[in-house]
């Protein structure tokens, strides 16, 4: 995989997503809009929509398998089992991607970040965030970054109807980490936990012979709900 620019991914506000929402709304007037985000994408969607200048025009957001509390999630991913099964392999892939695209890092600051990640012996997700992602987006360290991208604060105050779905066997996040105390007074937020599904798998009974997933059914139910309220 090749990188087109030196700018990597942040789970915070994304001006590209905001611009896309502007385009969709402007080109489809008198329509109803919803946002769906999965895993990291759910964090991006929630953080962006929370600051979006036309958020009152978005009827619903559906967040699937996303860490609702980034600090708690990182603590879990650094535990022995999850670290070896997820954090280290994923961190290794990110490091390989960055190291093989040195040509896109042009400025002095970008080259410094590239050297720091290329020479780093540690390759967990926390290491990648600490030496590369956090400084790239102006944070002093990964802890500051995790606090800023934590979507629990968005869920506490959002006025957009929001459905969050996480599987209880998700290695990244499960119901015991739900920010119930944070969102219990916000009627716009619904937290759903499924017994199985892993990290955004949600394979239904009979998979792979029956190809409909829990996610497919949930999205169709949300669309049907919105349609019935508008009729």
Tell me about the biggest sheet? Answer: 4 strands, parallel
Specify Rg, calculated over alpha carbons. 19 Å
Average pLDDT value?
86
Spatial separation of the terminal alpha carbons? 46 Å
What's the number of extended β-strand segments? 4
* Percentage of residues in helical conformation: 40-55%
DSSP strand content? 5-15%
Low-confidence stretches are none
**Oligomer classification:** single chain
Number of helices: 10
* Class per helix and strand makeup: alpha/beta
Query: Any idea what the shape is?
Result: globular
Strand order of the largest sheet: 1-2-3-4
**Order of helical and strand elements:** HEHEHHHHHHEHEH
Describe the structure.
- The chain has 231 residues and is α/β, with parallel strands linked by helices.
- It is 48% helix and 11% strand.
- Helix 2 (40-51) links the parallel strand 1 and strand 2.
Topology:
Blueprint: H1 15-27, E1 33-38, H2 40-51, E2 58-64, H3 70-77, H4 80-99, H5 108-119, H6 125-136, H7 142-149, H8 152-157, E3 161-167, H9 180-183, E4 189-194, H10 214-230
Parallel strand pairs: 1-2, 2-3, 3-4
Helix pairs in contact: 4-6, 5-6, 6-7
Summary?
The protein has 231 residues and is α/β, with parallel strands linked by helices. It is built from ten helices and four strands, in the order αβαβααααααβαβα.
Keywords:
alpha/beta, 10 helices, 231 residues, four-stranded parallel sheet
